[in-house]
Amino acid sequence: MPDSACDCHAHVILPEAAHPFVANRSYTPPPATLDAYLAMHKQLGIQRAVIVQPSVYGTDNRVTTAAIAAYGDACRGIAVVEPDCPDTELAALNAAGIRGARINTLFGGGIDLGALDALAHRAADIGWHLQLLIDGPTLADLAPKLATLPVDIVIDHIGHIQAHDGLDQPGFVALRRLVLSGKAWVKLSGNYRISNQRPEFEDAIPFARALIRDGAERMLWGTDWPHPAMFDFMPDDGTLLDALDSYVDSNDQKIAILVDNPAVLYGFDR
Predict the structure, then answer these.
(1) pLDDT for position 118
(2) Of 97, 93, 96, 67, whose CA–CA distance to 80 is shortest?
(3) Which of 75, 81, 107, 148 has fewest C-beta within 10 Å?
(4) CATH class of the structural domain 6-266
(5) Catalytic amino acids?
(6) What is the pLDDT of residue 270?
(7) Per-domain boundaries in the chain
(8) Quick check: 40 pLDDT over 90?
(9) pTM confidence score
């Protein structure tokens, strides 16, 4: 692994008795502690992290910001906030290492697309980006709107498209256009969420390779640890990291995805 490799997508979750989940959540996860996360990073040789607020906590970002603080200077985060939250709340989150706001169209408990315009302007004011958990059909419909927003867009999990629908499916075509325009970043994470070929997820490779060809400088990688809402299968984090070698054409591309691009987007020391 290159020095300062970054896992750009993971979650920390406490036992429900220690910190309650929101009532309108879509799933109830087991604990996924920071100690377990750090142990996984030590095993894989990962030195930086981006901890993303999970939907089960709604807009209560305290578990996420506490995890960022405990991880240290090599960690940033993504929050879930209401579009009308006070400026003081945004400033406090920014000081805590938050660098983006998440919109979630796939799981209950998050902020949905109704907040898109207002949240984009709030994010722009503080220098954040918007991160979207969205599926392919919705992305295809929404892409023209995303292109007009005043912030960068980060798309989770290769757009949550489905590999069996092919490279020409409208959602993936729209995603590639957003990358080519310089508007979108893409997390090459969650290959197991789009694949029908377990346990190696080979059918995700053409999608990742196409996106890297379109804009290697806009690609990120993450484990999506602890793989929430996966009930019938649990991927191996080493296998997810190894998949990156099947996506890139060179070691320089791998270093860009793991080190350089996260440093630009999240403000790590370069």
Answers:
(1) 97
(2) 93
(3) 148
(4) alpha beta
(5) 224
(6) 78
(7) 6-266
(8) yes
(9) 0.97
